[in-house]
Amino acid sequence: MAAACPATAVPVWLSEDDLSCIICQGLLDWPTTLPCGHSFCLRCLDGLWSTKRAGVDGCPWSCPICRKGATTKPVLHKNPLLQDLVDKYRQAALELEAGPEPQPVPAPRSLCRPTPPQVTVQKSTTKIIQELTEMAGQLVDVAKSLQTQRPSLGSGLDNTLGILHTDSSSEEEFSLDSPKPVTFSSSQKKIQEILQNLEEIQEKLQGSVSWRETPREQIRDMTSSLCLLPDQRLPRKASHFPLWAISPTFDLRSISCNLEVSNNCRRVTVAHGLHSYPWSPERFSISQVLCSQALSSGKKYWEVDTRNCRHWAVGVASWGMKRDGMLGRTMDSWCIEWKGPGQFSAWAMMKKTDLHSGLPEVVGVWLDLDLGKLAFSVAGQERLLYECAVSSSSPLHPAFWLYGLSPGNYLEIKQLNT
Between these two residues, 291 and 26, which has the higher pLDDT value? Predict the structure, then answer.
């Protein structure tokens, strides 16, 4: 049996996500690998440790992802294998940006020198997109033609047979076989919908063809499309969230008399009776409560355990939200709301959006105030439940609503390592 050639190349597909640093969100630069196996830019990791000397659980040199670490600062070394991969990836991206060069006449193939498959696949993908764009354009023309032919067809029947009566309000026509009216309005609307969908597909395909102008951005879009949050500046994996994790606490000034909180102010429960809290104009009249933390800038992430509450709403609101208003039904509050199977929805700008998902046992809430984005996910999974834009002239607070029908039901803000 012939031995395998030592120079045989094996094609491996890598995305920028595989070689990125979660701290700076860019390609690894002078990568260093911790004993736990996670890798970061040496400068990013050293800088993070310098700004967070308190560490986690008494470990000032913990890993930003898994939070493992030693009590003494480890010596950081460059990982030459990762650096080599990053350099090759960067070179490949530059070659894509420059565009394909004229290829010489290929020499006879050798088992030891296979043709690199990546460039060939990229060319064929571009060609396919161009062909799809042309096909979409042809379909748009056909749909427009059908749309314009519909009125002329009715006119011809009317002039020839004299049995067609068209009324602008009813949009009814008579068929040739029977004087029974046949309604074409639904067909006309269907054609219009198809035309709009085709035009949207055509625009997206045309945008995809322009990948040569900004190849690195195109690569980022392609690799991040399956991730939890679509925006490139948002974390791409659930394991990245601990960098911005907080553990808010409920504010006793705003809590409704129908609710009570635990000693650590992270569990709120539907009370068995009304509490005699001191009167305050900041107290909600229904079973709602805000957290004390006022969030005005940066990125924040927290998690809420909903497994012990039958009906709830989780979101954010400004401190100025009306105390007799309901979460999500005001212009300064946003939330997702669970009332039971088939009754899952989101509320933003006083508008309801039905969500087709099962009960999320632990809800992850991601708030990026720099981008003005709010997103809800299933904690621990890369599954987005809902995302919307938020805007407020004042800081936002984590907000909660427990329906006061089932005493003992509670929501709990999870204690996250920060």
Answer: 291
